[in-house]
C-alpha cells in the first residue's frame, strides 16, 4: 500500500490518524503542534509500558544526564513517557548534572517552537502520570508539574542565531532568579563597602564574608520552596480504623473502611513490610507502612466519584502526591509476592485439598482428584474500547474482560489466572487459554481434573455440572448438588 493510500485509509476510518513518514520530514509543517505522545495497544487503550530495567538503573549509576540528540517528539519524548522514568530522574542520588541540548532548527512537528516549548514538552511529559502542583517557570510559564523543572534539567546549551528562540528571562527559574540577585548583591556590596585590607583583622573579615556567601548560596540551592506557601489544613479520619481494630465488636466497621478484616490487614502488612521499596537513605523517614497500606486499601475500596485521589487524600489527611506514592509502593511490594501465592499446587498441597474433599463428600474415591476449581468473572472496563468495542459487551450489560480463575477448593487460594479474552467470550472458550487447558500434563498429574460450572465443556481435565434438561434427571441432580458443596 502506498503512503497516499495509507493516508486515505486512515483518514476515512474512525481514528482520523495522522500518518508519519520519516522520509517526508522536509514536507510542510503540521497544521497543529503536537500536544502529547501516547502508547496505544491494539484495543485502542492508552498504555504505559515499563522500560528496560538497565535503562532505569542507569539513572542511579551515572552523574550526568543529557537530553539529546534528535527530534524532540520522535526520539526523546518516547523514551521519557515510559513508566517510572520521571521518578528515577527526580529521585536519583547520583545525577548531579542534567543538560538539555537545543537543536539548531525545528522539525516539522515543532514548527515555531521556542525554548519554553521544549521545556514544557519535556517536563509536561515527565509529569503526565501525576497530578499538578504549582511549580512554574519564573516569569509566568505554563509548565505546571508535580516535580519542579529543576529536578529534570539544570543547564541549557544552545547556539545563538539559530531557529530556536531562547528567552533567558522566560526560562529562568525562581531559584536562579534569587541566586542571580544575591550574586549581584555580593558585587555591589564589595564595591560600596569593600573590606579594609590595611586593617589588622582584614583576612578574618574577608573569610567571614566568603563563608556567609557560600552558606547563603548553598541554602538557596537546597531550599525547595523559596516563595511563601499556603498550608492546606489536614485532619483526616484514618485514625478511626485503628480504633475499630481495638474492639472486636467494631471489626465490621474496619472492614467497611479498608475492605479487609484487621487480621487480614496484619497478614498483608507482615508480608510486605520488609520490601526494599519501603526503605531509603533519606534523612526523612517514610510514613509508617501500616498507614501506607491503609491508605492504599481505602483507595481500592472506593468507586465512582468517591475514588478521586483528592477525596482519598482529604479523608486520610495527606497530600495527593502521598496517596499516589503510597499506592505505588504497596502495589510494588504486593506484586513481588505473585509467584509465592499464584502458582500451581505442590503435591503436598494437592493432598491437603484431596483430604478436604474426602471429608466433604464423606467417602474416598475419584472425586478427590478434583483438587482445583475454575470459574470465570468479568473485569469491568471504564468505557467501551474504541477498537471492536462491541466484542467487550458482556451479558451483565457492561464492557469488560473475561478473567478465568483457578482456585483451591478448601481455602479459595488462587492458583492460576488467565486474562485477556473479551467480555463477550464464553467461559468455555476463555478456559482454553488457561494453564490447565494449555498445559494439562504440567498442571495435573495422574487422574487429576478441575471442577467447573455448566458453562464449561466436559473433557479430560474438566468436569462441569449438568446443563438443563439433563440437570433435572435425579441422578444428575444429586451429582450437581454434591459438586456444589465443593466449589463456589
Automatic annotation (TrEMBL):
Transmembrane segment boundaries: 65-90
Domain DDE Tnp4 intervals: 375-487
Molecular function GO terms recorded: metal ion binding
Keyword hit for Membrane: yes
A Pfam cross-reference name: DDE_Tnp_4
Keywords tagged on the record: Membrane, Metal-binding, Transmembrane, Transmembrane helix
Cofactor: a divalent metal cation
Protein's name in the database: DDE Tnp4 domain-containing protein
Organism of derivation: Mycena maculata
Lineage start: Eukaryota, Fungi, Dikarya, Basidiomycota, Agaricomycotina
Amino acid at each position: 500500500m502506498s503512503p497516499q493510500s495509507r493516508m486515505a485509509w486512515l483518514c476515512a476510518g474512525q481514528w482520523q490518524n495522522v500518518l508519519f513518514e520519516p522520509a517526508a520530514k522536509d514536507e510542510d509543517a503540521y497544521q497543529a503542534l503536537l500536544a502529547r505522545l501516547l502508547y496505544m495497544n491494539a484495543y485502542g487503550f492508552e498504555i504505559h509500558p515499563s522500560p528496560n530495567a538497565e535503562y532505569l538503573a542507569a539513572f542511579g549509576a551515572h552523574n550526568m544526564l543529557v537530553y539529546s540528540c534528535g527530534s524532540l517528539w520522535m526520539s526523546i519524548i518516547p523514551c521519557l513517557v515510559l513508566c517510572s522514568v520521571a521518578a528515577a530522574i527526580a529521585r536519583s542520588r547520583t545525577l548531579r548534572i542534567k543538560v538539555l541540548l537545543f537543536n539548531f532548527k525545528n522539525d516539522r512537528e515543532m514548527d515555531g517552537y521556542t525554548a519554553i516549548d521544549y521545556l514544557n514538552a519535556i517536563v509536561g511529559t515527565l509529569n503526565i502520570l501525576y497530578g499538578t502542583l504549582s511549580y512554574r517557570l519564573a516569569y509566568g510559564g505554563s509548565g505546571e508539574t508535580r516535580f519542579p523543572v529543576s529536578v529534570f534539567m539544570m543547564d541549557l546549551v544552545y547556539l545563538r542565531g539559530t531557529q530556536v528562540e531562547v528567552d533567558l528571562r522566560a526560562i529562568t527559574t525562581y531559584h536562579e532568579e534569587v541566586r542571580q540577585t544575591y550574586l549581584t548583591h555580593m558585587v555591589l556590596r564589595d564595591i560600596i563597602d569593600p573590606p579594609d585590607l590595611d586593617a589588622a583583622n582584614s583576612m578574618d573579615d574577608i573569610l567571614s564574608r566568603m563563608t556567609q556567601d557560600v552558606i547563603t548560596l548553598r541554602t538557596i540551592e537546597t531550599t525547595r520552596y523559596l516563595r511563601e506557601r499556603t498550608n492546606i489544613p489536614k485532619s483526616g479520619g484514618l485514625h478511626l480504623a485503628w480504633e475499630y481494630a481495638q474492639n472486636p465488636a467494631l471489626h465490621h466497621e474496619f472492614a467497611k473502611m479498608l475492605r479487609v478484616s484487621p487480621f487480614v490487614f496484619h497478614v498483608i502488612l507482615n508480608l510486605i513490610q520488609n520490601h526494599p521499596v519501603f526503605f531509603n537513605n533519606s534523612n526523612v523517614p517514610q510514613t509508617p507502612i501500616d498507614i501506607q497500606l491503609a491508605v492504599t486499601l481505602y483507595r481500592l475500596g472506593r468507586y465512582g466519584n468517591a475514588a478521586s485521589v483528592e477525596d482519598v487524600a482529604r479523608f486520610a489527611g495527606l497530600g495527593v502526591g502521598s496517596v499516589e506514592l503510597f499506592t505505588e509502593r504497596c502495589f510494588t511490594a504486593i506484586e513481588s509476592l505473585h509467584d509465592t501465592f499464584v502458582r500451581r499446587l505442590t503435591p503436598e498441597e494437592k493432598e491437603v485439598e484431596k483430604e478436604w474433599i474426602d471429608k466433604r463428600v464423606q467417602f474416598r474415591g475419584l472425586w478427590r482428584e478434583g483438587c482445583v476449581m475454575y470459574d470465570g468473572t468479568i473485569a469491568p472496563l471504564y468505557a467501551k474500547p474504541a477498537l471492536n468495542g462491541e466484542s467487550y459487551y458482556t451479558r451483565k450489560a457492561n464492557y469488560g474482560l473475561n478473567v478465568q480463575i483457578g482456585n483451591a477448593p478448601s481455602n479459595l487460594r488462587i492458583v492460576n489466572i488467565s486474562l485477556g479474552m473479551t467480555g463477550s467470550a464464553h467461559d468455555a472458550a476463555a478456559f482454553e487459554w488457561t494453564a490447565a487447558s494449555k498445559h494439562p500434563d504440567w498442571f495435573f498429574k495422574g487422574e487429576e481434573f478441575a471442577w467447573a460450572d455448566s458453562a464449561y465443556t466436559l473433557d479430560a481435565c474438566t468436569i462441569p455440572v449438568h446443563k438443563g434438561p439433563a440437570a433435572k434427571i435425579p441422578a444428575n441432580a444429586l451429582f450437581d448438588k454434591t459438586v456444589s458443596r465443593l466449589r463456589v
